[in-house]
Design goal:
152 residues, 2 domains, 84% helix, rod-shaped
Length: 152
């Protein structure tokens, strides 16, 4: 069950299987009731009420499953939309970086240390710190860790 909760698509597939399975079970029970047991039953008011309750429970279960599926679908669509907005915003911010800042960003995302970046780009440590601070400001992050997490 944990696997289903961790993967919404698997949960949807599972949910799509549950509803037809419930429908088959319901109609199987109704068939048994009417086909096998009906001639042995004394058809009185209680049996009709019981059948009405069974049919109502089926309808409620069916409606509940459809509502839950719709709610989760709406939430997933909102999350995807928000993710697209975030990506567009990030692309806009990346366009503001200079060529050198983009190079520094690339090295940071590769996991290189400041010393390695200085050696690779042939710049002083103070210049590197300046580039990193500009990157933080333009991308609106506060640390290297946050910067890396933004691009994961």
């Amino acid at each position: 069950m944990r696997t289903l909760l961790a993967n919404p698509d698997a949960l949807f597939r599972f949910q799509k299987i549950l509803l037809p399975a419930f429908t088959l079970l319901f109609f199987g029970a109704v068939y048994i009731l009417f086909g096998e047991v009906a001639d042995k039953l004394e058809w009185n008011e209680t049996v009709y009420i019981l059948m009405l309750l069974v049919i109502a429970s089926f309808g409620i279960s069916f409606a509940w499953a459809r509502i839950e599926y719709s709610k989760v679908r709406v939430l997933m669509d909102k999350l995807l939309e928000k993710e697209k907005e975030k990506e567009t915003y990030l692309q806009h911010r990346l366009k503001q970086l200079s060529v050198k800042e983009k190079e520094v960003l690339h090295h940071i995302l590769d996991g290189k240390s400041n010393k390695e970046i200085c050696t690779t780009l042939f710049i002083e440590h103070s210049t590197l710190k300046s580039h990193i601070n500009h990157i933080y400001k333009k991308l609106e992050v506060k640390s290297r860790k946050e910067l890396v997490m933004t691009f994961k």
